[in-house]
Amino acid sequence: MRRHYLTRHAEEYAKYQGDEREARVAKLNTCLLGQQDFFKKANKESDAAVESSYVVSEMIAKAGKSFKEGEFIKNCMLQAASIVCPENKGRLSNISLSTNTVAERISELSSNIYDQLCEKGKRFHAYSVALDESTDVTATAQLAIYVHGVDDKFEVMEELLKVTPMHGHTTSQDIFRKLCDAIVDAGLPWKNFAGITTDGVPSMTGNINGLVARVQRKLEENGVEKAVALHCIIHQQALCSKCLKFDNVMSDVVKYINHIRSRGLKHRQLCAFLKEIESAYEDVIYFTEVRWLSRGNVLKRFIELRAEIKAFMEKDGGGCSCTK
User: Fold this and answer.
1) 0.85 exceeded by the pTM?
2) What CA–CA distance (Å, rounded) separates 98 from 110?
3) 249-278 pLDDT, tens per residue?
4) Angle of CA points 299, 301, 306, to nearest 5°
5) pLDDT at residue 97, rounded to an integer
6) pLDDT tens-digit map of 19-70
7) For the chain, what are the domain ranges?
8) Residue 78: how many CA atoms within 13 Å on its side-chain side?
């Protein structure tokens, strides 16, 4: 460094001595720090833009909206910034909310989370799986596989292992093949398989060709004791709700809800009435037999609005014996 200074800079800076030299060094140091801060500031702004993109994308996902809404939200933010704080509009324009960018980031995150899950799965002393097959809005069957494992330190972890679409048939053999693929891909050994939880459909619980029976035979081939087979707790609640006799309650509730919702004028009048009195809810809910959560949601909403419904029905002249 001394040789470099003497050959390159001594002629220019040798004339500075004492306090003048210290002031010159301080000035050069300030310029250097300013140049470094320029790059640090750019990195901070870039990191803030990426973090903002993740936060907005998470809010869109939680609201059940399409990621295509991201561009619309960004345009709204830019328009608002141009009025409120025009000096920061450029920083907001760096936030990327395009569908392709968000999809790529989600893919990277899901891949990273899956790798962490597989790494933890290697330390499982025992694990069990829970499966549920349902049809989405596009009429495609989706198989959700959850894993619940515990390691030697008794640390318990429960995560969604995989959601895989099932095109065509959804027989027990097809579900079993998907389950085997998920277990092999995650690196989970069959020798640590301890339990399986399913719903009560024949393709899952059949004694010969059901999924549970196929899994038990797979374990026997690997020299493992049979796993504990359980019925899903959530579906048990659904079965109980069907067995219990709620006809004396549900018949009146459904009658009055249908009386309101099936008539356009009365429905609009009820919504206007609830809005006028500033009720916590703006409408009643239809009862859907095939949805196991529907019964509880309908009853809860009806009970919370029973006073308002009674006042509306008495005002309308339709009577309200079921809300007493």
Assistant:
1) no
2) 18
3) 888 888 888 888 888 888 888 888 888 888
4) 90
5) 84
6) 888 888 888 888 877 776 666 665 677 788 888 888 888 888 888 788 888 8
7) 19-93, 122-235, 247-323
8) 14
Superfamily of chain region 122-235: Ribonuclease H-like superfamily/Ribonuclease H (3.30.420.10)
State the sign of the Cα–Cα–Cα–Cα dihedral 248, 250, 252, 255.
Answer: negative
Give the amino acid at 126.
A
Residue 163: strand pairing partners: 144
Q: How far apart are CA 142 and CA 178, in angstroms?
A: 11
CA distances from 69 to 63, 102, 288 (A): 11, 11, 30
Which two structure tokens, joined as six digits, stand for 74? Answer: 């960004």
Spatial distance between the Cα atoms of 92 and 76, rounded to a whole number of angstroms: 11
SS (H, E, C) 251-296: HHHHHHHHHHHCCHHHHHHHHHHHHHCCCCCCCCCCCCCCCCCHHH
Question: Is residue 211 within 8 Å of residue 172, measured between CB atoms?
Answer: yes
Tokens found for residue 127: 């694990």
